[in-house]
Amino acid sequence: MPHDHSHAGHQHAAPPPGGGFNAAFAIGIGLNLAFVVAETIGGFWANSAALLSDAGHNLSDVLSLALAWGAAWLAGRPATQRYTFGYRGATIQAALLNTALLYAALGFILWETIDHLRHPEPVNGRWVMVLAGIGILINGVTALLFRSGQKSDVNVRGAYLHMLTDALVSVGVVAGGGLVLLTGWTWLDPVISFIILGIIAYSSWGLLRDSLRLGLQAVPDGIDPAAVRAWLLAQPQVESVHDLHIWSLSSSGHDAALMAHLVRPGGADAAWLGALTKGLETNFHIHHSTVQVEDGALPGGCHSHCEAPEVAHK
Questions:
Q1: Are 178 and 129 in contact (CB under 8 A)?
Q2: What sections of the protein cross the membrane (predicted)?
Q3: Residue 268 falls in which region: left (phi positive, over 0), alpha (psi -120 to 50) or beta
Q4: Phi, psi of 258 (to 5 degrees)
């Protein structure tokens, strides 16, 4: 049976280099790098596992910010003949790598904390409180720099959550330093470090989950694939839908793409395809769609390892 293949799609400009957060990344990296140096020196001088664990995590934050910034810059580069989608996927790779680095750092800090618990040493609680108090200010300010973009981009959300978590953890370190200063119980310091590690691991779980989903090209959050299929089947004269794929081109929640094959007798003209593409954008926030229209079932069935066609009931 003859069939007509038509394609509809959008070409969108790349996001701005740095994702619009160049200043936030630069300020965040500068502030946190200076604080890591100060906190590491202070941690050794005060014999504080809590300070050293916080410094280690802050160092991972500096690396994370640098990776996120580099990925955001790459995402703003134009597409090429080989990289036809541009480099938007770099933000997904950065989110995955940042999560891996974070949990690796947690493992190292956990080992050091266990050693401090087994061999507790005197802790300078006053020095711990001073440095951790500075951390509240630095991490809090950095988190605010990324707040506006954290709901729409996993890459930016990673930076925001790291900084916000650090600010909250620093509050705990200040409280712990005060308790050590008042009671003299040196074992409190590694115990507080354990609590810090637990908070970081728990708060980062969602980032790990979302990064893995993006890396595996899962359907983005907020898009119901069953609803998309039903909507496509409801379009005039569409008999079935197959080979439907929905994924995200980058870590941004507004960068969804779709590919689908529709069986529609008589094929489709430009006006129909334009309305279909506009409808996907309006109803599901899918901004990059490619639709192949077939005027009947393919000879010999589906040839691209797609699922069996679903027939509309009209």
A1: yes
A2: 21-46, 95-114, 126-146, 167-185, 191-208
A3: beta
A4: -140, 145
Give yes or no for a contact between 262 and 6, defined as CB atoms under 8 angstroms apart: no
Q: How many CB atoms within 10 Å of residue 55? A: 24
The b-or-e profile of 217-251 (16+ CB within 10 A means b, else e) is: eebbeebeeeebbebbbebeebbbbbbbebbbbbb
State the burial class of residue 14 (Cβ atoms within 10 Å of its Cβ: 0-12, 13-18, 19+). Answer: middle
Q: Which of 139, 181, 159 is nearest to 55 (CA)?
A: 139
Give per-residue pLDDT as tens, 95-143. 888 778 777 777 877 887 787 777 766 666 677 778 778 888 888 888 8
Cβ of 146: how many Cβ atoms within 10 Å? Answer: 25
Is residue 253 within 8 Å of 222, Cβ to Cβ? yes
103: nearest Cα among 188, 39, 162, 170 = 162
Provide the H-helix boundaries in the chain.
22-46, 49-75, 90-118, 125-146, 154-183, 188-215, 225-233, 270-284
**Tens digit of pLDDT for each residue in 204-240?**
787 788 888 888 888 988 899 999 999 999 999 899 9
CB 156 within 8 A of CB 148: no
State how far the Cα of 304 lies from the Cα of 50, in Å rounded to an integer: 55
**Structure tokens that stand for 63 in this block:** 């690396």
